[in-house]
């Protein structure tokens, strides 16, 4: 066996030093190259030759194979020393790979650049993930999924050279970050389909009897496990599986039973007396049941509360015995003159504090009395507030006439009364649906014809579109900004074409914005066959007029036979398209020319069979 050598002469013409490393066993000698440094060959000191005629002794009795292994390891140690001597600071060891990209032999800065260049657009591409039997894609930016190339290169350099790994190469794990919470949100829809939601516990009242819903575990995303799986599999796997785990509501079945026994049942066993400096009143068992809540949060944790808003609503007229409601200042018209009615302060029960104190006594069987504070409350709007709005003169008025049935007329008058006196401050937007709320039987409205799905049918609140058109035109001719409106699908001759509006609660609204520096008072008046809306403010425009274009694409009605008790017959009407321009003048000049366009369908001739 040839003895290993630690140094040999450079072959003729060689421009780099080479080094032969001994390998234990029968493997061939591997020659490694040292780069980026001048030649610094460190020769090994050869052992002295034994005296003539004497056999070499085994060191400490070592067998030759063991001695050869030691020598090999010593050679590797020498090689490591050589490489350490020639390695520069912050340099990534040779043959280091990250995600299959070789970044070895470079500075950490160059290695990071090489890694980023090697990955290219892969780091921006959507990632396919599997949750149970469902798949979806995740946008890396959406979940803050990113590779830190600089940190990865730094970690690779920290390890230093390893002679063993120099022979086979070394793979370094990339430094990857991801936001686990954002990842959970991104795949929430898929998780919902793949797993199943937990049943959240709760307690509700049926009359005065509490009813419990007990918790049941569900299956949801393992957030930490999903983040780890995505970090590990990203840029390696075509599809990454995100783990599911059992999810348990935080409030247990035993805790639900304890809430029933300790609070829910005792709470409605007797009323609670509330004392104030202005007198006392009683919170009935029914009012307690309506305002005491055992609603869980999204984790299934129940925290009993008394809802302040529900408590005030449940007490109703009881509070009127000890409260005085504040009265805002209002604007009224008297003989064509704007007058301001002053505001008045009030005295109200602090129901927020009462709700908290009430919860503290509901579990008791005796001592069910709490003291409530009565606080002074100022009006929200004072006379000086209204005076500063500059509401002093009529700026527009619009009237429409009606001759419909009793229900339709009733509804028009009802909504006009509700809107009368509304004040719109500068910059505020008026929403008719938002101002009146649902126009139902409870609010005083009755059945009348409405256009629904292309035909006339009877529904509660029918006829409101006539008031909507009247209000829209008053705002239009006041020069106020149109935020949203939608004309009728069929042309109605009692309305101006194009500049008219329908409405339907809650999906279809009519809105306009006060785009002036002054307040606007909406004044409504009605007769037996007409409704008028007048806007009072300070004039900013000389005039507001309308110019109509011709009717185009006229179509004729068709005859349709309908059945059903809700059918309303019609004579039909033509369809057409038309443009209209709102022209606003100030200082004798046109400052705005706003285009409105609409296409009317031909209204069928409905015959009720």
Automatic annotation (TrEMBL):
Q: What is this protein called?
A: VanW family protein
Is the keyword Transmembrane assigned to this protein?
yes
Keyword tags: Membrane, Transmembrane, Transmembrane helix
Q: Where is the composition biased (Basic and acidic residues)?
A: 1-10
Map out region (Disordered) in residue numbers: 1-24
- Look up keyword S-adenosyl-L-methionine and say if it applies: no
Q: What stretches pass through the bilayer?
A: 66-86
């Amino acid at each position: 066996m040839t003895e290993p050598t630690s140094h040999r002469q450079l072959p003729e013409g060689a421009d780099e030093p080479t080094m032969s490393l001994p390998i234990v066993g029968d493997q061939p000698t591997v020659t490694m190259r040292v780069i980026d440094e001048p030649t610094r060959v460190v020769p090994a000191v050869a052992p002295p030759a034994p005296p003539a005629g004497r056999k070499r002794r085994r060191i400490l009795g070592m067998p030759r194979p063991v001695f050869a292994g030691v020598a090999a390891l010593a050679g590797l140690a020498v090689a490591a020393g050589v490489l350490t001597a020639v390695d520069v600071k912050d340099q990534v060891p040779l043959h280091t790979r990250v995600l299959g990209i070789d970044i070895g032999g470079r500075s950490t800065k160059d290695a990071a650049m090489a890694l980023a260049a090697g990955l290219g657009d892969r780091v921006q591409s959507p990632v396919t993930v599997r949750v149970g039997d469902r798949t979806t894609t995740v946008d890396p930016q959406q979940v803050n999924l990113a590779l830190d190339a600089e940190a990865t290169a730094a970690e690779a350099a920290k390890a230093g050279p390893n002679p063993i790994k120099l022979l086979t190469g070394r793979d370094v794990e990339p430094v990857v970050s991801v936001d686990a919470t954002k990842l959970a949100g991104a795949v929430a829809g898929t998780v919902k389909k793949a797993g199943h939601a937990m049943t959240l516990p709760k307690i509700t009242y049926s009359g005065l009897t509490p009813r419990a819903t007990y918790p049941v575990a569900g299956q949801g995303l393992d957030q930490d496990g999903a983040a780890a799986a995505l970090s590990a599999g990203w840029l390696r796997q075509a599809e990454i599986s995100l783990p599911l785990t059992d999810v348990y509501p935080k409030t247990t079945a035993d805790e639900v039973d304890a809430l029933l026994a300790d609070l829910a049942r005792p709470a409605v066993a007797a009323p609670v007396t509330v004392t104030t400096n202005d007198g006392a009143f009683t919170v009935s068992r029914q009012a307690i049941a309506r305002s005491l809540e055992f609603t869980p949060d999204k984790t299934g944790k129940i925290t009993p509360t008394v809802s302040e808003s529900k408590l005030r609503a449940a007490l109703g007229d009881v509070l009127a015995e000890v409260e005085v409601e504040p009265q805002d200042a209002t604007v009224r018209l008297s003989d064509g003159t704007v007058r301001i009615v002053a505001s008045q302060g009030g005295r109200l029960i602090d129901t927020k504090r009462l709700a908290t104190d009430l919860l503290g006594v509901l579990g008791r069987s005796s001592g069910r009395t709490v003291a409530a504070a009565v606080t002074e409350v100022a009006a929200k709007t004072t006379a000086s507030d209204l005076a500063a709005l500059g509401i002093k003169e009529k700026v527009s008025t619009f009237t429409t006439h009606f001759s419909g049935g009793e229900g339709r007329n009733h509804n028009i008058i009802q909504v006009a009364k509700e809107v009368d006196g509304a004040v719109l401050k500068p910059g505020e937007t008026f929403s008719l649906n938002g101002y009146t709320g649902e126009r139902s039987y409870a609010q005083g409205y009755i059945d009348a014809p409405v256009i629904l799905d292309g035909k006339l049918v009877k529904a509660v609140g029918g006829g409101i579109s006539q008031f909507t058109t009247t209000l829209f035109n008053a705002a239009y001719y006041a020069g106020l900004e149109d935020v949203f409106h939608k004309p009728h699908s069929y042309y109605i001759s009692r309305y101006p074409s194009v500049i008219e509006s329908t409405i339907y609660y809650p999906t279809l609204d009519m809105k306009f914005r006060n785009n002036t520096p002054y307040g606007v008072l909406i004044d409504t008046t009605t007769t037996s066959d007409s409704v008028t809306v007048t806007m009072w403010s300070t004039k900013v425009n000389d005039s507001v007029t309308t110019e109509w274009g011709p009717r185009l694409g006229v179509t004729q009605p068709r005859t349709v036979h309908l059945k059903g008790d809700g059918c309303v017959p019609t004579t039909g009407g033509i369809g057409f398209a038309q443009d209209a321009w709102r022209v606003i003048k100030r200082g004798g000049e046109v400052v705005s020319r706003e285009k409105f366009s609409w296409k009317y369908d031909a209204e069928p001739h409905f015959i009720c069979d």
